[in-house]
Write a structure and sequence with these properties.
Structural class: mainly beta
Radius of gyration: 27 Å
Helix content: under 10%
Number of strands: 5
Order of helices and strands: EEEEE
Number of helices: 0
Distance between the termini: 90 Å
Largest sheet: 3 strands, antiparallel
Length: 71
């Protein structure tokens, strides 16, 4: 008696859900200023990158301190 071939069942395709957008962390704000305690260089944030991890700005081999930006 001949053997009947059965069709292989293919697994259902999974649809990819859109990844949730990463929110900018609370410590990163437009207008935030950083100042070097050694040389006095001052940096003001113009664009928020939206990264999850915090960035450390380093000047004169030391991390810059947060300062209040002048408006």
């Amino acid at each position: 008696m001949p053997v009947k071939k059965t069709a292989k069942k293919t697994p259902a395709k999974k649809t990819k859900k859109a990844a949730p957008k990463k929110k900018a962390a609370a410590w990163i704000k437009k207008g935030q200023a950083y100042e070097c305690q050694v040389c006095g260089l001052r940096v003001v944030v113009d664009n928020v990158c939206g990264c999850v991890e915090e960035h450390t700005l380093i000047c004169c081999k030391k991390p810059m301190k947060k300062k209040r930006a002048k408006k």
